[in-house]
Amino acid sequence: MAVYTHVSAEALSAFLRRYDGVGALVSAKGIAEGVENSNYLVDTDRARFILTLYEKRVDAGDLPFFLDLLDHLAARGLPVPPAIRDRDGVAVQQLEGRPACLIRFLAGVSVTRPTPAQAATAGAALGALHRAAADFSGTRANSLGIADWRPLLERCGGDLDGIAPGLYARVDGALAAVEADWPHDLPTSVIHADLFPDNVLMLGDSVTGLIDFYFACRDLRAYDVAVMHGSWAFDPRGEPLDGVGAALLAGYAAAHGLSDAERAALPVLARGAALRFLLTRAWDWLNTPADALVTRKDPLAYLRRLDWYDAHPEAFA
Ligand SMILES: Nc1ncnc2c1ncn2[C@@H]1O[C@H](COP(=O)(O)OP(=O)(O)OP(=O)(O)O)[C@@H](O)[C@H]1O
Ligand SMILES: N[C@@H](CCO)C(=O)O
């Protein structure tokens, strides 16, 4: 469970009183998903909300960018949850010593084993997101982009071999190959950069919510497609799901378009995305505080994807 910061009922009640019309606190439960921020499901006598307290990887200075992006996408009809402003127009508050936002609750559930039909609509939602982001002028560098992976590898160092024998050398070699082949001339825009199944809320085959924009940044659009491929087209252990990757790409291409150059780059972008999540998961695996209520995510599930991408260069043809 991702609850790093505990919120008392008194502090939460006082927090809610800053807002007009949200009602009085009835209950608050820590949410059992996620690893980055502390999230609570908050029920008042009027409605349901999400309370997010921003933790380790979210820089408070970036919050205005994320919140402006959510407002921009919501204004264009995307199912994203804007932060609610208090009666003074303030979205980012302080609660229990952390930056915190009250966020509109969106209906839907995230799928753990997507079908091709669900992957197609989720891919189309990413295409719609890229279309809507095209005229968003805000910008933020990718703080977990290709330039950051080697420093992260070196920070993990030989401890990686404690996760799996030979892991450091395997990642070092794979990263060198990705660095050598990385494309630098593909189209960029603001991208989500973490659109895993757990960040897409669905009812049946329809997308009802796109959440967790806290890695959004300006980077290659096709890298966003590769991040989605790695997280959607495999089961949680890293075994490929029949037809799901192809359906995801078809959904994205139909909604947005995917050039031949972008498609040709997907094999290296997908190996890069696999390394990004392998490395951040490995870092968390090695450094998660003992008292955190968080379920660590398995770094080796991304080693299996890396192996699969190496063995299937034809996957994106
Ligand atoms: N606006 C929302 N409406 C409904 N549910 C939400 C909303 N925001 C978050 N959630 C729920 O809270 C969970 C955790 O949220 P989120 O993914 O933002 O956390 P995180 O710690 O940043 O996660 P991650 O590990 O994916 O980076 C989601 O899986 C979802 O169940
Ligand atoms: N979605 C990521 C967590 C955010 O870095 C993962 O599952 O590893």
UniProtKB/TrEMBL annotation:
Q: Which reaction does it catalyse?
A: L-homoserine + ATP = O-phospho-L-homoserine + ADP + H(+)
Q: Which GO terms describe its molecular function?
A: homoserine kinase activity
What Pfam families does its record include? Answer: APH
InterPro entries given for it? Aminoglycoside_PTrfase, Homoserine_kinase_II, Kinase-like_dom_sf, Pseudomonas-type_ThrB
Superkingdom of the source? Bacteria
Give the E.C. number(s). 2.7.1.39
The biological pathway it contributes to is: Amino-acid biosynthesis; L-threonine biosynthesis; L-threonine from L-aspartate: step 4/5
Enzyme class, broadest EC rank: transferase
What UniProt keywords apply to this chain's record, in alphabetical order? Amino-acid biosynthesis, ATP-binding, Kinase, Nucleotide-binding, Threonine biosynthesis, Transferase
Q: Which residues form the Aminoglycoside phosphotransferase domain?
A: 28-257
Q: Which family does it belong to?
A: Belongs to the pseudomonas-type ThrB family.
Protein name, as recorded: Homoserine kinase
